[in-house]
């Protein structure tokens, strides 16, 4: 039984196996949620609309929202997310998930400045007053792993930026949270990222040993702060 007195379910859209719910999933399960996982491009996502869960969690992946000619199922995923948003459902998007929410909200998504590795974000005043304030416990350090960016959707509130990428996190009301970065990653899972993204790391000239060493320094504290942030957001959203 969930903390609000009834069974809850979260639908998860996953794009690659190693970018899984991580600490978000841990927090959700601790709060009584069961997770129903859909593999994008494989599973029928229309179930998400026909049988909506209490929360939709859209995770990351190494493709671009605008690559629908190569990955034709992307347009259908954007439509599913758009229907969820229009219905007022609760949604969390991480990295590609945040970009998909932006696209489903009518905003532009496009190639931007590549950011890979551990680095701080700068919260806006709204961000400091949001559940993301828990990331201050880790000195606002997060794991970045993206090359695309997006315009801020109409009606959205910017929560965080970096010098290179202004739109790092945003909220739409109390029911939609979108993060360009990855506070959900458990430190012990970083090796799967280094393996899965080996080609991207090589093209970017980034030594996996650098990320591995930095993960040992900050990964656990960021994951703990991320768990607090997600728990606070779920509390505010009534989940």
Automatic annotation (TrEMBL):
Domain Glutamine amidotransferase: 27-189
Name of the featured protein: Glutamine amidotransferase domain-containing protein
Organism, scientific name: Cupriavidus pampae
CDD domains assigned to the protein according to its UniProt record, in alphabetical order: GATase1_1
PROSITE patterns: GATASE_TYPE_1
């Amino acid at each position: 039984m969930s903390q609000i007195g009834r069974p809850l379910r979260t639908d998860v859209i996953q794009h690659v196996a190693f970018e899984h719910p991580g600490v978000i999933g841990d927090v959700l399960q601790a709060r009584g949620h069961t997770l129903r996982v859909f593999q994008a491009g494989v599973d029928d996502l229309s179930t998400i609309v026909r049988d909506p869960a209490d929360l939709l969690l859209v995770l990351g992946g190494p493709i671009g929202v605008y690559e629908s000619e190569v990955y034709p199922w992307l347009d259908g995923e954007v439509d599913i997310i758009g229907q969820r948003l229009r219905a007022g459902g609760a949604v969390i998007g991480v990295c590609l998930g945040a970009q998909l929410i932006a696209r489903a909200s009518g905003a532009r998504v496009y190639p931007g400045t590549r950011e890979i590795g551990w680095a701080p974000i700068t919260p806006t005043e709204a961000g400091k007053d949001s559940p993301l304030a828990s990331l201050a416990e880790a000195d606002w350090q997060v794991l970045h792993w993206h090359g695309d960016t997006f315009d801020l959707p109409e009606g959205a509130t910017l929560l965080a930026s970096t010098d290179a990428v202004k739109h790092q996190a945003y909220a739409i009301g109390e029911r939609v949270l979108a993060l360009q970065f990855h506070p959900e990653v458990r430190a012990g899972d970083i090796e799967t990222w280094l393996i899965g993204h080996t080609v991207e790391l090589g093209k970017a000239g980034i030594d996996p040993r650098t990320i591995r060493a930095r993960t040992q320094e900050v990964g656990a504290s960021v994951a703990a702060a991320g768990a607090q942030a997600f728990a606070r957001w779920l509390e505010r959203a009534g989940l």
